[in-house]
Amino acid sequence: MRGREWSRPVRPARREVLSAVPELEEGRPPLLFVPGFGHGAWAFAEHWLGHVASRGFPAYAVSLRGHGGSEPAPEATLRAYAHDVVQVAASLPRQAVLVGHGAGALVVAHALARYPARGAVLVAPVFGGWGVLGAALRRNPAGTLPAVFGGPLRLNRGQLFSRELPDEEARRYVGRLGRAGRRAQWALLGEPEAEPAVGAPPVLVLGSPDDRVVPASTLTRVARRYGSAPLLFPGMGHDLMLDARWAEPIDAILDWLEKEPVAH
Amino acid sequence: MSTSTDHGRPDPEATSPAANSDGRPVSDRGDTVCVIGAGASGLTAIKNLREHGFGVDCYERETGVGGAWNWRHDRSPVYASTHLISSKPFTQFPDFPMPDSWPDYPHHSQLLSYFERYADHFDLRSHIWFGTEVIRVEPVEGDRWDVTTRSTGGYGPERTARYAAVVIANGHNWSPKLPRYEGLEQFRGEIMHASSYKDPAQLRGKRVLVVGAGNTGCDIAVEAAQQASRCWHSTRRGYWYAPKYVLGRPADQVNDSLLALRVPLRVRQWLYHWTLRLTVGDLTRFGLPKPDHRVYETHPIANSQLVYYVGHGGIGPVPDVARFHPYAVELADGREIDPEVVVFATGYLPRFEFLDASVFGDSAGAGRPTLWLNAFTPGHPTLAVAGLLQPDSGLFTLSHWQTVLFARLLQARRDRPERATAFAQRVRDRAGERYSGPVKDSSRHWFEVGHADYLRAIQRALVELEGK
């Protein structure tokens, strides 16, 4: 019974979807990338989309409402974000693999309960909780504290990137960051766990032990929830798709997709 | 990352020889499940059975998906202007939302494209045999089923395959129900059933009598009010005509916010009457009969325009038809009217012409099967009917969960047989249960369910099947 969801449908919002499709349609499942809070589809368009397409998979990235080129939505909730993801996934020609990064992984976890994805990949998942808040407060008190009171969450380059990334690029990326709705930010602290995924999709969790946003223990916990162990890329920051060695994790994801005997 | 091909199409050469009662060869399809019909319910059955790891063969007599919603199909009841009467959140499959850009009440052509996208998205077409109709479904030992098919129209040889389970999703809005009237044969005007009504041009400039106040009857009456030179609308009783929008939102969404709060039926009825009083008020002043029942006791009619056109004099409400004369129609109150065209929007009856009536416990042949959850048959644990419901919301969410339950039941038969046995016992005990408040007794309401009550019942059944 989803009486409440039926009686209060999510307000539609214009969404930005960037894509890169391979020249030759090979019948492979499309990947839909979901950026974390503050990021837009651009974060994936930078490197990953093109790389995925060059390996024969159609690749799409959505900007959650209020992010990137999508419609502004200061009062957006986690449910509205999950709605955005499911809407885009259902509009793709085939059953999609959802790839969520950061808090986008939490959005994906919620979307999985509303859409039978072919598979899911959680990259450096931020599932909220007090541990993540504690880590963020320690690393970046000035950027984090306002978010607790409904202000914007400001991430700094030390949190997001490793030292290998050239200074100039890192500054450019940080400059493009936006902010999530305050209700969605608060949801990181108090939201109940996502409902179980429908259609039993295989789930891969990956991240970096040197991530300054997601502690390694969180990675292990999330991965255990989906019955696996996390795939680790030491030496990388939180934004694995923008960091200097961005090719390693995406290649690992595609290798996993190629050999995973997907249920369908 | 390719779709599995191990459950491809049946190949009579490669399978073990068995024979059916007539001694003709039967190809054994192992654990594969047969789905009859690739309409909305059939598609979701294929998708959910595949998702639970079963092989599926679906037989569809037409050449496309969408069943009743595909206007190209000769059994399709849709007419040019058909729109949904339940808003999007109630109509879509729960795991495949309709696009945000669509209106609250989409048009039937949008619905067809929705089903086509659903079929492509989940790669369902490779499991469907188009242009193939099922002519016999017979139970054989071991709770298995022999399904005999041939090309639609009766060409080609018959082929029989043996399946582990069968889902019947042949729809229930294609076999017209025509009432009997005295003198109908002598009537010289044109008579049509709503199933053959396609386009308002059929009524243009004519004097039209529309019989029946279902949603179709009301739609046709409204179109006749716009196109015909004169329109009468004959109804058996007074009805509640629900507007499509109240309080600034689609009406069914408002209703469901009350359901979510578990507001009791009486209070909801009172609120409803009160809302109507605020807007159109008492309908009897237009000559419409006073409803002989409280709201929610008949299938809801969602039509904002009917009352509007009655108020403009475009539709003349008249009582039941008493008898037909060659050039006139006599009404129950003695009046005579002279329509040129009579449209019977008198509904449809379910038909399972390929199945022996005793399978459904319907030995009297009345056409009304006795089922639990309107889906499960006592004594036949591997047979399910999908979509045989008249919900007060969209149907597809309901048939989705029906087929999920059936897929889980088939899993339980394999993995935890004791639970499947307990389930079969519940089917025997509770067959014929209803999932709505009190409704008027008529074949119109055989399959009437309240969507909230029904989904709760399905949820309970799922929990009982799988609970610790």
From TrEMBL, chain A:
Keyword Amino-acid biosynthesis appears in the UniProt entry: no
Domain of life: Bacteria
Cellular-component GO terms for this entry: membrane
GO molecular function, one term: hydrolase activity
Residue span, AB hydrolase-1 domain: 31-244
Keyword Hydrolase included in the entry's annotation: yes
Keywords, comma-separated and alphabetical: Hydrolase
SUPFAM superfamilies reported in the protein's UniProt record: alpha/beta-Hydrolases
PANTHER family: AB HYDROLASE SUPERFAMILY PROTEIN YCLE, MONOACYLGLYCEROL LIPASE
The protein's name in its UniProt record: Lysophospholipase, alpha-beta hydrolase superfamily
Species whose genome carries this gene: Micromonospora saelicesensis
Automatic annotation (TrEMBL), chain B:
Keyword entries, A-Z: FAD, Flavoprotein, Monooxygenase, NADP, Oxidoreductase
Pfam families in UniProt: FMO-like (PF00743)
Coiled coil region boundaries: none
Source superkingdom: Bacteria
Spans annotated as Disordered: 1-27
Molecular function (Gene Ontology), one example: flavin adenine dinucleotide binding
Keyword Amino-acid biosynthesis among UniProt keywords: no
Family listed: Belongs to the FMO family. Belongs to the FAD-binding monooxygenase family.
PANTHER family, per the entry: DIMETHYLANILINE MONOOXYGENASE (PTHR23023)
UniProt protein name: Flavin-containing monooxygenase
Organism: Micromonospora saelicesensis
